[in-house]
Queue: 4 jobs
Job 1
Amino acid sequence: MIVQNTILNTAVVRKLIILAVLAVVWQAYSMWVDNNLLFPSFKATVIAFWDAMTSGELLFRTWNSMKLLVLGYTTGVVAAVLLTVFAVSYRIGADFLETLTAMMNPLPAIALLPLALIWFGLGAGSMIFVLAHSVLWPVSLNTYSGFRSVSNTLRMVGQNYGLTGWRYLTQILIPAAFPSVMSGLKIGWAFAWRTLVASELAFGASSGKGGLGWFIYENKNQLELAYVFAGLFTVILVGLCIENLIFRSLESRTVKRWGMSQ
């Protein structure tokens, strides 16, 4: 009983159980529908996923998507850092950030795709621009809100120790605001990943190098629904890996170690 409770208290085990239950429900529902052209089974999806992976096509598509994602996400985060530093340093900067965020944050990144195609042409530049837009505003907003929520006590402690400028920012403001910064980074990542797949569905392949969205679109046109689900399955797997391997590891080494979250 003690061993069983210990196993169930492990988050990874609990999540694997949830995934197993969802897979069983998926398989049962597909058997009830009994139409692979409408809703392929979990087994058929796994077979299609394995076939696409071993042939190298799905790996190639995923690699193309991830390259664009990293470039767009990094560009958006760097722009957000610069904008937030400007906002916390000057009153006009805060007004500038609040005004731009109110204007641009509700604007779907995919809506800028036609303009991006005109400005940057049919290539990676358009995708990076759209991804950077989807990342910039949530990261800026959350980071700025985190800086504003830093208590006056911590601010005075930093001032009493003679911290100013960059040292004050890195030793007082950033650690205290890091939970909000992490939330912004995670939201920005989710927005970027969704925007990338949606953009590839509409944008297509760039120089014959389509990503996961294009993989899904191609197989939809060929009525290969199992491969469409395999593409969607890959999108989910990438999201789970990024969330659990990168963001959770970063949280455990920062905000959890600092006692700022459970």
Job 2
Amino acid sequence: VEALNWFIDRWPGLAASTDLSSQLTQLYEAGSSVFEPNPCLDSNTVLAVQYEQLKNKWHQLKQAINGQLAQYKSDHFANNQSIDFFGSANQSLRVSAEPFSILPCDTAKTCGVFVELPAHIGLLDLFPDHVRMAHQMGLGSIQLCYDQVGWSNRQTEPTHLNNNKIANFKGQLNFELVGLFQDQTVFKKSFTSLNNYTYLFGENSQEVLDMHCPLPLVGTQINTQLDRGTYGLFPNRLTFLTAQRTDISALLKNNWQEGEAWQQQLSHEKQSEYLFFDELNDLKKTVNDAFLNHVNQAQQQVYRKLMYVNTARISDSELSAAVFDYMVHRIRFEKTIIGLYPDLYTEPAVRSALKGSQQLMNTTFFTQAFEKQTPLIDMLNEGDQLLAKYQPIWAELPVSQSHSLFEQTRNQLIAAMKRTQKP
């Protein structure tokens, strides 16, 4: 209309000599129809629904980003992938106990015990956070083993033979649990059974009572002299064999599975209760550097897919498909406003949402975040904040919009129509 008025002002004779009435009438009717949309297309309802769809596409995009990070962890970490790339390097991880078993550290120090015990999460939690992180990232492996198996709180009791030269020995089963990282000892912790067990029949002596593991004595002879003479017997002695009264391997394995005292002790752990504890502080920097390197690599992978929309949809990854779907709906939302409700574009809040410096997320938003190397979690939080910021607009739009800009243009068109009419 502005161009038409400019033409008429400069060449009024040419305009007057040309019959433009039908064309101007069509232009007038077309413009009026744009500003008088179908009543069923209420802007509040249509745009509110479209905005909810846009939010859903954004949430699907966030899920696809998490899927991309999970795929990265699956590709690079051999162990359980519980590392949170949105967390810090000193995050507390739960290492799955399923692949772990507890075997003897040194069979020479387990009092003849050689059983395989299942591990559980409580035991793995005894390792410091950064050591578990190092295990998860494949910088080394944590291990559990048991050592120094034997008897504590030992005492003797008489046998049914009423012979004070021999005795039964009772005590509590005791062992040390050892935590290792790359064969380096991290901690040692002592576990003792609640119950007492008769573990040996042997010579009643302090030397035997002092033995933590009397296994070497099993099978040796015990020679005793009769107290009341021979009564015609010769020689004047009785011989016994030292015998193990308890199968330690079975006792340890069965009680471990049934949840004996040593497992229950894990509920209130204190570092002071360790026999030995090494923080492995030298490992912390290595873990931190490796964590930041992995986070950076994974973040670059995500940003590359966010910035370059695969319009051909060939060999789409889940993330690429989610980016495409979000961007298509972002464009559709904008075109819906411009095409169906052009007068809404005069609203400052609407223009801000679509074209302002804090507009709803688009390719430019992702590119700027990449150039600034904004952490993914911060970028996603900013997106959530923008969606929340513009949420109220679409439900609060006035039913009847101002036609001031349209009226000005229409008045110009009416003036042009009058000026081109023949007398």
Job 3
Amino acid sequence: MRFPLAAALALACLLAALLPAAADARRGPCMVGTEQPRCHVWTGKLAWVDDGDTLHVDVHGDGTRKPLHVRMIGIQAMEQTRYARNSRAGDCHAVEATERLEALIRRGKKRVRLAAQDPESRTRGRYFRSVAVKLRGRWRDLGAIMVGEGRALWLANRAGYAFNQRYSVLTQRAERLGRGLFAAEACAPGPNPGHSVRVWVNADADGADRLYPEGEWVRVKNLDPESPLPLDGWHVRDTGLRRYTFPAGTLLPPGGTLTVRVGRGEPADADEHYWGLRKAVFDNPTFDRRALGDGAYLFDPHGDLRASMMYPCRVECHDPLQGALAISAKPRGRERVDVTNTSGGPVDLEGYRLATPPFAYHFAAGTVLQPGETLRLRMGGDPDDDTPLRRHWGMMEPILRNRGDVVRVTTYTWIELACDAWGDRSC
């Protein structure tokens, strides 16, 4: 039997009206209280909480009783190893994060608001969603609460960039206030309690990171001038789940520094380690609406976070060397850059870099300029010929663009200390 076209269309419309409403039919602000950017928005009811950044939600109007497996966008809680509610266990801070997330949602009578810029974005079968709960009559973003309390780290998300800027700011504030993960000895005293240590990361390898993962590295410095620091069982990690655990017998001497390179290779000496990964792991920062970035974190065997560095800096972005340096570049002929100490005291350049994208020169330990001194860095030459005030980058070809380029001295969190530009470029 054949139906006229008009009747077929009418029947199709009637069937569509009888079907459950599409789960992504509504649009709204990604973050309550803002207008832009816009997201797909759903509501639902909590089925259960898996851990501090993962849960199952029965989404209203999706036509199924099967809960949606949700991975909270933009945050990374510590990892659990056991998930049953009466026997939860895992890394230090993991269970506390799970219980806090669960308590917040229960306070909101288990009703949640989900949002995503890309409704199909997912990882390991879990859908990326921001999660909000109504507390005291208004929706509250749970991701913001978790990172603001130091219950989780900010994890930049490319598909859900709407949350990156806010979450990174809140995490950096939590770090400065010593909240949650960033509280000293929150897990257990020691080892080596109170031992001062610094960590920084070179997130942007020269050229394409994917082709040169060993160009990404994490550096750890023992700030104690007298006592060594054993690193047996300590580990460094990015904001994701990738970690490098120091082997037994690793000892950081007083004032010493060691480097963990992300890629593969043979260590040149005891101060160099290789993570052994095939791919770069640290996201390069962006200063656009995506607000990408990452961090490096050093944990002791008890799970205490002993040192960290997040980038780019978005909170209290100042540095002691701002205003203390001047640089001048010579792009033609034998390329060079002069770095001058314009302050009234010595400046130590270890932990800083000279950048002219896509390349960066990393100042070594012991690079100290007295007031008025100038360090001359030649782009070519042999680094074996270095002297305290004459350095050689070792580049085989010119890297400064004669028609216009820019050279900066910066921190590894992208705080600018000095800049020189010419031609069609500007600082």
Job 4
Amino acid sequence: MPIKFMNTMSKTLAFLSILLIASCNSVELKDKTLLENIPAGNETIYEVNIRQYSKDGDFASFQKHLPRLKDLGVNILWLMPIHPIGERKRKAYGDIFAEEISDSIERAKFLGSPYAVKNYREVNPDFGTIEEFKSLVDHCHELGIKVIIDWVANHTAWDNPWIENHPDWYTYKNGEITDPLNSSGESEGWTDVADLNYEKAAMRQEMINSMKFWVQECDIDGFRCDVAYSVPASFWEEARAQLEAYKPLFMLAEAEAHNLDLYNKAFDAFYGWELHHKLNALAKKEIQSDAIHSVVIKNRKQFSGRAFRMNFITNHDENSWNGSEYERMGNNWEKMAILTFALPGMPLIYSGQENSLNHRLKFFEKDLIDWSLPEIPLYKTLCKYKNEGYFGSNEDTSYQPLKGSDLFGFQRNLEKGKLTVLMNFGEKTMEIPTEWNQGKTLLGAPSNEIKGGAYWIGFTPHH
């Protein structure tokens, strides 16, 4: 199933507000770091699939990778759900539940969806203990890496204690608790989970209390909120206000333009689905490059700098259900990856993406990432430029598309200088317009022209 903050004055006011809230609630502000250190779109987020990351698939094994990820240059780790997975109606394949498979050996292969949460305040025993999770978070913080966890607020597993103890907290259809429904009242197909009713105030508060548990007990830095568009914006605003009485947080919504109210107060970032789909199409030459400019310009008008887009060429959903970036983008995957960093917003790297993973990881079963594959140096370079401000954040003063040329290109005025991106998706060699052929080379070969399939990224510092 299927991150800028404000300007400096706004940041300071927001921070003082948080201190005031904390004081009024007698809660110790554990993380006294100013809000300037909360993500503003100039970081790189890395999605962690604990189950598939190592043979043991646990926190301790993943923790060994932290020095490598620090060296890669990522700033934020997003861990897919770390909670126990429901056993009742556990998905196997298609519409088949694991409990319907008679062969015990075959049935044991199916570990279920991480998004079918059995208990919001416990750790999946396959991943380790809560103490091991705390150790992982502490180690990340020592390395200067923030940690956010996946939060599934829209639904629970069928054997979550809430089902028995608070059946009124769920949505009903034909007199029975139902799986999530679409706007037409039909099943979304997520039959392994039960839909929560957000008209129930007691349930909303208990959900917030469960989120508080992970902030207060484990010192996490925020949440990636699953299907955030299906949960009322009022809940997310209430949750954030209560959570930030403890520490400043980063909130990422799995949502795009479904509900713009989500980005007024609750969330810092949203999913760049539209851009992602356009990148897929551009890579296959199904659309013209102007379509990319249109998405960027529209987003800037819609969100006015408050929230920003997370850019990606792959993630757990895209990889498992739609194929690897190599399948979807062919030989143009490299240019698409560069665009996720160079365009306004925050780039995402998914587990194994940095190591040439060209395989659809199974969603409900163990399917180990092959770390013997060659590392792709490009990602370390992209992270370096992002960290150093060459790719900026969402906070640029202009976005200027290249017009009147068969080259795809744009320029951005950033704090450090002007970024120029030029790409040739055709087969013929193209001349670079004189006024665009300036600055030092970040990527590509310096030249007055770009060969078919090639690219050039330059930077002109402010004097």
